[in-house]
Amino acid sequence: MHRLAGLVAAFSLAGCAAIPDVRPPMDTGVVEIPEPIPADTALAATLSPGPAIETMPFTGFDAAPALAAFRASCSKILFRDDTSGLTRRVDWQGPCGAAQNWLSDPTDFFKSQFETVIVGDGSAFATGYYEPEILGSRVRAPGYDIPVYAMPEDLVRAWPADMPESERTGRPPLGRYDENGDFVSYYERAEIETGVLDGKVPVIAWAADPVEFFFLQIQGSGLLRLPDGTLMRIGYAGQNGREYVGIGQVMREQGLIGDGTPYPTSMQGIIAYIRDNPEKGAEIMRLNKSWIFFRELDTDGPLGSLEIPVTRGDSVAVDPKFVPYGAPVWLDMEHDVADGLWIAQDTGGAIKGANRFDTFWGNGEDAREIAGGMSSRGTSYLLLPKGTLARLKP
């Protein structure tokens, strides 16, 4: 949920920063993810023309909501730099201007404004994420004992005092200052679950089920069904900076799920095992030291890292070093449900490299089923404003 949703922008200061800008990984760690191509950005990768845009099998059913998602993205992409190096802000002025007043066939919009580009060999890998709905309460009550913490004030970015200046590159790590004034790692999941933050960090709500809340944290955002039946939407505010561990991979390696067990290698299989083996399940969940902090949202959907609501079947999480935010992407995958046009509006800790995607499926039981079972290889084409490839490779 970037998700998550990178569901908030980073605050950067000289010595520290208050909020990280990448939400937790969105996959469950069940599948083996292909190694990324050896390039730091798309600009450093092999780029080649894709199929002629006129031959792409766009349909109005797919293109109409994709056009709406692209139009919503324009309020952001016109004012931010593209870290992939492929496009400039000015490149998006034409497509965004056309999108605002486009009234004819939406398939013609994409065919008139974009060209297809293949990054690397175009071999794509896609997973899925969704917006969970779990039971929660705004106040602590019997049966609602799991705190949903807001951002801690003492969670900051800084350089450890013993780190040489020559090694201080990129952003400082997340952590806190201890009672001696030393910069140390922030509390991990096990410490937080046993109450180290009690009375020190604001609690915005209380969840009923620790297992469901664990998976909501992985998704990065979600809905709390309150006792009166209303819904409270919460979104990613920050992360503790500790290691994320995909417990599905660990469970498969330990022979707890997969072939020869009653538990399939899916999110549903992971949850079933944890519920059937609560003591071992709690131990496994604590292997994932990452903890997510939340804020309440009043939006129509969960926020992606582009800071606009993501929409079912239209929004996809990408590595922004390889896909410009707001860019349309065409996927042709083994799971046909993921085929079609998507708009890059989110990112995540597990979404790294070219042609790596995480498709968003909204909320509800079917969304959970699709996202939990999505692990698909195929082909991707990046859609860039016409003339981009010629400018990059004169």
Automatic annotation (TrEMBL):
MF terms (GO), sorted A to Z: hydrolase activity, hydrolyzing O-glycosyl compounds; peptidoglycan lytic transglycosylase activity
Gene3D superfamilies to which the protein is assigned, alphabetical: Barwin-like endoglucanases, RlpA-like domain
UniProt record, GO biological process: cell wall organization; peptidoglycan catabolic process; peptidoglycan turnover
SUPFAM superfamilies: Barwin-like endoglucanases
InterPro entries in UniProt: 3D_dom, MltA, MltA_B, RlpA-like_sf
Nucleotidyltransferase recorded as keyword: no
Pfam families: 3D, MltA
Residue stretches making up the Lytic transglycosylase MltA domain: 133-295
UniProt keyword terms in alphabetical order: Cell wall biogenesis/degradation, Lyase
Protein EC: 4.2.2.n1
Keyword Ribosomal protein attributed: no
CDD domains, alphabetized: mlta_B, mltA_like_LT_A
Catalytic activity from the UniProt record: Exolytic cleavage of the (1->4)-beta-glycosidic linkage between N-acetylmuramic acid (MurNAc) and N-acetylglucosamine (GlcNAc) residues in peptidoglycan, from either the reducing or the non-reducing ends of the peptidoglycan chains, with concomitant formation of a 1,6-anhydrobond in the MurNAc residue
One GO cellular component term noted in the UniProt record for this chain: outer membrane
Protein name as annotated: peptidoglycan lytic exotransglycosylase
Originating species: Qipengyuania vulgaris
